[in-house]
């Protein structure tokens, strides 16, 4: 996949071309150094330690974490060598269905242990680069950030007068990520054929089901080590649209809110968001998207927002009922929500 030969061919092609911009030249130099860092023995060791710490089920080859550990150094050496000499081949993911509420199922796509190690090794070197590119409105799958940071961000914008809200969710986001568009987005920063081939193999390798291996040109495995970063890369242009729009975005994976100062602005934002997502091959979830405000209340990331109060929701009951109970309990006890903050005087 990413052999010294392939890397050399890439470098020869670069030398034969005259780039018009320094950006492209720097991008190629960066990709070369990334390959060297990626293939370091120490990097594969770190990747193994991370995968082993996370545990997780075996993939379609039935090899478990404990199985790989039995002959650890030999297995790591052979795995790294297979990547370097292009003999590495990703396995299709294993389908696992987890029951949800009301008889529905959540599908996970589990890669093999060896695939998780290679993905983690690449993630070790790519994540720090992309972290410098991602927008501050994106909170999921990022170091030192959590859903509570996103909740607090919503509260901050509320206190600054952004009282109208587009409470939105992207329909089947991971299943609808277009492979070609995703690879183009990755290539904007990392233009190396070996790295791109590896990523393509992981997203296009398919899913083993009872009916055999299914392959599509859309979707990334929601269970792969590298998928969270790829999911953020895919929506990076979406995030950056809001930086100078007069609107505020708080996004956690495919769940997000857009905040505006007026009702007219949020109505316009609804149309803009639909157009943006449609251009990416995505769509808003019709049952999980609505315009609201803090007076009416809404729920986001397991928390209820009602007027100036924020409180955890322990069950999917009606938000207004929960808000009313919370408000009465607070008044009766004279208590204050730990998330509650005072509105600025205007």
Q: How many beta-strand segments?
A: 11
Q: Based on Cα principal axes, name the global outline.
A: elongated
Alpha-beta classification: alpha+beta
Distance from N terminus to C terminus (CA atoms, Å) equals 59 Å
The largest β sheet comes out as: 4 strands, mixed
How many helices in DSSP terms? 13
Radius of gyration, in Å, reads 23 Å
The proportion of residues in beta strands is 5-15%
Overall pLDDT, averaged?
85
Low-pLDDT windows of residues: 4-23, 315-346
Order of helices and strands: HHHHHEEHHEHHEEHHEEHEEEEH
Query: What is the strand arrangement across the widest sheet?
Result: 2-1-4-5
Quick structural gist:
The chain has 346 residues and is of the alpha+beta class. The chain has helices at residues 4-15, 22-38, 41-54, 65-70, 72-84, 113-131, 147-159, 179-187, 193-204, 227-234, 236-241, 263-279, 319-333; strands at residues 93-99, 105-110, 164-169, 207-209, 212-214, 248-252, 255-260, 290-293, 298-300, 303-306, 309-312.
Mind explaining what this structure looks like?
This protein has 346 residues and is α+β, with helices and mostly antiparallel strands. Helices cover 47% and strands 15% of the residues. The protein contains 13 helices and eleven strands. It is elongated. Mean pLDDT is 85; it is low at 4-23 and 315-346.
